[in-house]
Inverse folding.
C-alpha cells in the first residue's frame, strides 16, 4: 500500500526557543519573531471575528491562560498534496501525508476564547493552563513557548459558527507563523514511511478512540478531535500515520491531553512509528469514533473495527480513548472483539474513582487483560492542590465556579472568581496518550 | 432499569433491564411521529411493568420490540 | 534482627492428620512445633522463623460454632504470643478458606499480624480479601511449594513489622485500596512494553486487574400490579424549568426529589434536562422520555397499576463515582421502602 500511494513524508523540525513580536514574521536560529499586525490581519479576514489579540507566555512565567480550547503546533506543507490540518474550518480535504512538511517545535498556538462548546447540557470549556507551579508541571504545555490568540466572534452567531470562527482564527495564526519556515532549511529532518519489513515481525495497529460530540451537542460539527474536519459519528477510519503527522486528526478539545498539539505529538504514535521494522510491522491507525447512543450501534462499531484490524492482518493492537463516559463501552467491546479474533490488545486508559474498592473501569470486561493505567482522571481524586495566585492572566479575568466546581465560562447563576487568584484545578486530568508516569496501584 | 445501552446495565449487575430507545430519548422516538412515538414509549413502560412482575435470578433483559421477556443473559 | 521470628500456624483437621470430612466437627486443639504442611512451612522460612506451635480446628466446628472456635484460637494465640500467624494454605477448600480468614481476623484483633493463602475464588477470599491479607494460590495442594514460598516471604515482613508494598508488587490479593502511584516511566512506554510481552508470550502484569461488579440479589416480583404503587427515578438530569434548585449537570453528590402528585405528565414549560453527557434538547421538548409520567398516569387511569408514587427522584448520571452512586441509591431505596412503594422504574441516559 505504502509504495503505490507514495506515503513518504519528510518532516523538517524548526525548534522554537523564544517568541517575540517584531516588524516582520520570521524564524532565525530558534527565535520566532511575529508581526502581530500581519498575524491579526489574517485573523480578521474572517468577518465573524470581532476581537482578537496576541500574547506570549513562556515556561516558568507566573501566568495563567484561560479559557483554553486548543493548543496547535504550527505545521505547514512545503511540498506534496494538501494542507496541514486538512478539512478543518473549510480547509482543503486532499489526502495528506506525502512530500515535505515543516513544523515549529517547542511551541504552540493557543486558542483562547469564551466561546463554549455547545448549548446543551452544561458541558463547559474548563481548561486553563499554568506556565509554572505544581499544576502547570503536569502538562507538556508549560515547557512550550506559547503564542496565545485571545479571540471573540460575533455574539449573535450560533454556536457552530462561533466554534468554527475561533478555531479558524487559531489556524490562521498557526499558518502565518509556520509560513516563516517556508524558504528555510530545517535544522533537522526525519523521513517517515511504512517501508517493507521482516515478515516475521508481529503486525500491530493503533486503535485510536476519538470522541464524537454530536450525541451530546446535537451538532455534527461542534468541537472535538476531527478526522479531516469531520467530528461526526462514522464507522472507523483507517489512517496512515503520516496523515496524523500532517494534522488529519485534530481539533479543539475539552481535555488538555487531547488537544491538537498532544494529538500531533502523541508519544505512543511516534514510538509505534519509529520502531516499525525493528520491533513490529506497524500497519497504521484505526480512528474509532465514539459515543454512539444505542447498544446496537456500539456493538456494531466494535465488531466492525475489530474486523478491520483483522483484515489488515493485525496480530496486536494498542488502544487509547479520549473521553470519560459511555464512550468507554464501544472501546472496551472493540477490545473484546479484537481478542476474540486473536488480536492481542493493550489498553492505555485512565481510571475512575476507586472509593470503597469499586471497579475503576466503567464496564470491566475480563477480556481486557492487559491494561496500562494513567491514573485517576479527576484532578480531585488525584489530590491536586488548588493552584496558587499568578502575576498575569491571558484571556478572561474571571471563571464561573459552580457547586460541582466544573463550570467554566458561566451559565448565569454560578459565582465568578478571579482567575489570577487561587483556583481548584480543572475537573479532568486524563492523560489519554500516556505522556506522564502517574498511574494507580493496589 | 430502562436503558438504551442495556448490556452495560446487565454486565454491571442490574437485574431487570428493559431496552430503551436511544440515550437522547429513552422512552420513545420523536422520529416516529407523535402517535407511534407514544405507542413505542408505552410499550417500553409496559414491558418494564411486566419485568417488575417477573421473577428473575440474575441480570435479565426485557426487550419491548420483541414483546415477551428474553431468556436470562447472566454472563457475569 | 537475626532472631528467628515465632510463627503460629493454623490448619484444619485434614492437614493435621486427624481425619477427613468425618472429623470436620472436631474442636480447637494445640500442638507444639510444626504439624503436617507446617514442616514444609518451617523449611520455607529457613532461618528467618520457627514454627513454634500449630492451632488445629475442624472446618465444620469453625463454621458452626464460630464464637467458641475463635475464643479458643484467641486463647492459644495469647499463650503462644507469636510474632505472626500463618493460616492454611486453603487452596480451593471453601470452608477451610473461611476458617483461615476468621483465624486471621482474630489474630489481628489481638495485635498479631496474620496472613493466609487460598485460591482467589475461594469464598474466604471473595468475602474477606479487603480485611485479611491473602496470598493467591492454585486450586489444589499441588501448588503448595509456590504458595509456601510466597506466604513465608510476606509473613517474614509482617513479623518484622516491615511495611508492605502494594498488592501488585507483593502479590497478595488487592484489598480495595487502589491509589495514585508513580510508575517512573511514561504510560506510552509501558503500554508498548506490555504489547511486546503479550505478543511474544512473555509474562506481563496488568496495571488494572479485572474487578467484577457486585452481584445484587433480585427483588421479588410484584404480585399484583393493579394494586402496586410505582415510583420513578431518572439519571437523565431532569430539572424544573430554569433549574431553580441549581442541580448540577455532572459530578452529582446528591439527588433531587420532586412531587408529581398534581401532574398528569411532564411538560416543556415545567421541566427540562441539564446533563453534560447527552444532547438535552430532545428531552426538553418532551421530558417524559426520561421520566415516563405520562405513560404511568395513563395506565393508572385504566387501572393497570395501583398508583404513581407522589415523589420522583432525579440526578445527572455523569461521572458519578460508584461509591457516591451506591450511597445515593441506598438513600432513595430507603425513602421508597418507607413510603411503601412496590416497584420502581429507573430511566438511565
Amino acid at each position: 500500500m505504502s509504495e503505490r500511494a507514495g506515503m513518504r513524508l519528510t518532516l523538517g523540525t524548526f525548534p522554537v526557543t523564544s517568541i517575540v513580536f517584531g516588524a516582520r514574521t520570521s524564524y532565525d536560529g530558534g527565535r520566532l519573531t511575529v508581526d502581530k499586525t500581519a498575524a491579526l490581519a489574517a485573523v480578521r479576514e474572517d468577518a465573524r471575528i470581532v476581537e482578537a489579540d496576541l500574547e506570549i507566555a513562556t515556561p516558568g512565567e507566573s501566568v495563567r491562560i484561560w479559557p483554553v480550547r486548543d493548543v496547535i503546533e504550527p505545521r505547514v506543507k512545503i511540498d506534496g498534496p494538501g494542507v496541514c490540518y486538512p478539512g478543518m474550518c473549510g480547509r482543503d480535504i486532499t489526502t495528506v501525508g506525502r512530500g515535505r512538511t515543516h513544523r515549529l517545535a517547542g511551541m504552540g498556538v493557543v486558542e483562547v476564547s469564551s466561546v463554549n462548546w455547545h448549548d446543551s447540557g452544561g458541558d463547559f470549556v474548563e481548561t486553563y493552563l499554568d506556565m509554572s507551579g505544581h499544576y502547570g508541571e503536569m502538562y507538556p504545555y508549560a515547557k512550550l513557548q506559547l503564542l496565545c490568540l485571545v479571540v471573540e466572534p460575533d455574539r449573535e452567531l450560533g454556536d457552530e459558527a462561533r466554534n468554527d470562527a475561533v478555531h479558524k482564527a487559531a489556524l490562521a495564526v498557526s499558518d502565518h507563523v509556520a509560513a516563516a519556515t517556508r524558504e528555510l532549511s530545517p535544522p533537522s529532518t526525519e523521513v517517515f514511511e511504512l517501508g517493507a519489513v521482516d515478515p516475521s515481525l508481529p503486525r500491530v495497529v493503533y486503535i485510536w478512540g476519538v470522541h464524537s460530540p454530536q450525541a451530546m451537542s446535537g451538532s455534527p460539527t461542534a468541537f472535538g478531535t476531527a478526522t479531516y474536519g469531520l467530528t461526526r459519528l462514522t464507522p472507523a477510519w483507517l489512517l496512515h500515520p503520516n496523515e496524523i503527522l500532517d494534522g488529519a486528526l485534530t481539533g479543539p478539545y475539552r481535555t488538555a491531553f487531547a488537544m491538537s498539539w498532544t494529538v500531533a505529538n502523541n508519544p505512543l504514535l511516534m514510538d509505534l512509528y519509529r520502531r516499525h521494522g525493528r520491533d513490529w510491522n506497524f500497519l497504521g491507525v484505526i480512528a474509532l469514533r465514539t459515543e454512539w447512543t444505542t447498544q446496537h450501534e456500539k456493538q456494531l462499531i466494535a465488531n466492525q473495527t475489530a474486523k478491520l484490524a483483522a483484515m489488515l492482518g493485525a496480530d496486536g493492537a494498542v488502544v487509547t480513548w479520549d473521553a470519560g463516559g459511555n464512550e468507554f463501552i464501544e472501546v472496551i467491546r472493540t477490545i473484546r472483539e479484537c481478542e476474540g479474533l486473536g488480536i492481542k490488545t493493550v489498553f492505555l486508559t485512565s481510571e475512575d474513582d476507586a472509593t470503597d474498592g469499586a471497579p475503576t473501569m466503567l464496564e470491566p470486561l475480563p477480556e481486557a487483560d492487559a491494561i496500562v493505567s494513567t491514573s485517576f482522571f479527576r484532578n480531585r481524586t488525584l489530590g491536586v492542590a488548588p493552584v496558587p495566585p499568578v502575576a498575569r492572566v491571558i484571556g478572561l479575568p474571571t471563571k464561573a465556579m459552580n457547586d460541582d466546581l466544573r463550570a467554566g465560562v458561566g451559565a448565569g447563576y454560578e459565582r465568578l472568581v478571579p482567575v489570577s487568584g487561587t483556583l481548584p484545578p480543572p475537573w479532568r486530568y486524563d492523560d489519554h496518550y500516556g505522556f506522564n508516569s502517574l498511574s494507580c496501584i493496589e | 432499569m430502562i436503558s438504551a445501552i442495556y448490556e452495560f446495565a446487565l454486565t454491571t449487575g442490574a437485574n431487570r433491564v428493559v431496552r430503551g430507545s436511544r440515550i437522547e430519548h429513552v422512552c420513545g422516538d420523536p422520529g416516529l411521529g407523535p402517535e407511534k412515538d407514544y405507542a413505542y414509549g408505552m410499550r417500553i413502560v409496559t414491558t418494564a411493568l411486566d419485568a417488575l412482575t417477573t421473577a428473575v435470578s440474575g441480570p435479565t433483559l426485557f426487550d419491548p420490540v420483541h414483546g415477551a421477556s428474553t431468556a436470562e443473559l447472566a454472563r457475569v | 534482627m537475626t532472631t528467628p521470628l515465632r510463627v503460629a500456624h493454623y490448619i484444619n483437621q485434614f492437614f493435621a492428620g486427624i481425619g477427613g470430612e468425618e472429623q470436620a466437627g472436631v474442636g480447637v486443639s494445640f500442638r507444639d512445633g510444626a504439624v503436617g504442611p507446617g514442616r514444609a512451612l518451617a523449611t520455607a522460612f529457613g532461618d528467618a522463623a520457627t514454627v513454634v506451635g500449630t492451632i488445629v480446628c475442624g472446618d465444620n466446628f469453625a463454621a458452626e460454632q464460630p464464637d467458641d472456635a475463635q475464643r479458643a484460637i484467641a486463647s492459644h494465640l495469647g499463650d503462644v504470643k507469636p510474632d505472626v500467624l500463618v493460616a492454611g494454605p486453603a487452596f480451593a477448600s471453601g470452608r477451610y478458606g473461611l476458617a483461615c480468614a476468621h483465624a486471621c481476623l482474630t489474630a489481628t484483633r489481638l495485635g498479631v499480624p496474620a496472613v493466609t493463602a487460598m485460591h482467589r475464588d475461594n469464598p474466604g477470599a471473595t468475602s474477606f480479601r479487603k480485611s485479611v491479607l491473602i496470598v493467591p494460590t492454585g486450586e489444589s495442594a499441588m501448588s503448595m511449594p509456590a504458595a509456601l514460598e510466597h506466604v513465608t516471604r510476606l509473613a517474614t515482613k509482617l513479623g518484622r513489622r516491615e511495611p508492605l508494598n502494594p498488592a501488585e508488587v507483593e502479590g497478595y490479593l488487592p484489598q480495595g485500596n487502589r491509589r495514585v502511584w508513580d510508575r517512573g516511566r511514561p504510560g506510552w512506554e509501558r503500554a508498548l512494553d506490555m504489547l511486546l510481552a503479550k505478543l511474544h508470550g512473555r509474562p506481563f502484569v496488568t496495571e488494572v486487574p479485572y474487578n467484577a461488579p457486585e452481584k445484587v440479589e433480585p427483588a421479588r416480583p410484584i404480585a399484583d400490579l393493579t394494586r402496586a404503587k410505582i415510583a420513578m427515578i431518572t439519571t437523565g438530569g431532569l430539572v424544573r424549568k430554569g433549574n431553580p434548585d441549581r442541580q448540577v449537570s455532572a459530578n452529582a453528590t446528591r439527588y433531587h426529589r420532586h412531587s408529581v402528585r398534581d401532574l398528569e405528565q411532564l411538560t416543556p414549560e415545567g421541566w427540562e434536562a441539564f446533563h453534560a453527557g447527552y444532547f438535552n434538547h430532545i428531552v426538553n421538548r418532551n421530558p417524559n422520555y426520561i421520566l415516563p409520567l405520562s405513560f404511568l398516569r395513563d395506565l393508572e387511569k385504566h387501572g393497570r397499576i395501583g398508583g404513581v408514587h407522589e415523589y420522583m427522584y432525579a440526578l445527572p448520571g455523569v461521572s458519578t463515582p460508584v461509591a457516591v452512586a451506591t450511597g445515593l441509591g441506598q438513600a432513595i431505596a430507603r425513602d421508597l421502602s418507607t413510603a411503601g412503594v412496590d416497584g420502581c422504574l429507573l430511566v438511565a441516559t
User: Anything to note?
Assistant: Chain C has eleven helices and 13 strands. The mean pLDDT of chain C is 94.
